Amino acid sequence: MKSVAIIGTGIMGSGMAVNFLKQGHRVFVWNRTKSKLKPLISLGASAVSSPKEAAVKAEIVFDVTANDRSSQSVWLGSRGILAGAGYKKYLIASGTFSANWIDKLAKICQQKKLTFFDMPMTGGRIGAETGAMILLVGGSQQKLKTIYKDLSSIAKKIAYFGKGGSGIRFKLVLNMIQSVHIVALGEALKLGKKSGLNLKTVGDYLSVQPGGVVTNLAWRDYQTEPKPINFSIKWITKDLNYAKQLAKNLPLPLLAQVYKKYLKALKKKHGQKDWTAINKI
């Protein structure tokens, strides 16, 4: 059973740390805001002074920070992960970052002969807390197999997408279609209400057929605001922007319109609301 380090103990990172601890792993934690470490330390985690120290002490290192800027700050420099990592370590970027940054990071690790995976997650807060996430992986499939048992401490499924950078690309595709579903439900509810239909009946049936899981989630949260939130408007706006960067000149009008809608909500100071609240703004 390998030791792990969690760099960034927000909603997802703290859930991962707790589940690794429950399964008997030695867990090291680092966070920019030190007060967030206290609950994990009380459960048995060990705080480290820097991402570099985490990479020295742990066999598997997870970057679960918020965006490209925060990720770069924990990987690069004299106190970064790369300064402390050796060739036997498994280095994993688990946040949702841009494909450009992941490609650069993968190249650096390759040059240093370090094992690197992009491994964003899906499952949200509940998945992180219950150890039931799905890991979306890019990197060496052969080396991935050597840590399957360790990853099963935090995930119900490990989905392999191919070479480095493939996992983050799929995550951006996934977040795009999920956000489109959420906004589409909002418009369907408006049309149903204008047509004189019972709003609850419309929502109940759309969330079963043909909407599926995402529509069900959006309808549930439309009726009762989730507390705590699962995923914020601030972060889905960031992810959609990364998806737009990935698309470049590819015409994706739905992505453009949904991004515009979330960006407008963010500018109106709704960033800390759940992403499904877009239908009430």
From TrEMBL:
Record-annotated 6-phosphogluconate dehydrogenase NADP-binding domain positions: 4-162
Keywords assigned: NAD, Oxidoreductase
Protein's UniProt name: 3-hydroxyisobutyrate dehydrogenase
Domain of life assignment: Bacteria
Any Pfam family: NAD_binding_11
Keyword NAD: yes
InterPro entries named among the record's database cross-references: 6-PGluconate_DH-like_C_sf (IPR008927), 6PGD_dom2 (IPR013328), 6PGDH_NADP-bd (IPR006115), HIBADH-like_NADP-bd (IPR029154), HIBADH-related (IPR015815), NAD(P)-bd_dom_sf (IPR036291)
Lineage: Bacteria, Candidatus Beckwithiibacteriota
Residues of the 3-hydroxyisobutyrate dehydrogenase-like NAD-binding domain: 165-279
Catalytic residues as annotated in Swiss-Prot or TrEMBL: 171
Keyword Cell membrane: no
Record GO terms (molecular function): NAD binding; NADP binding; oxidoreductase activity
Organism this protein belongs to: Candidatus Beckwithbacteria bacterium GW2011_GWC2_47_9
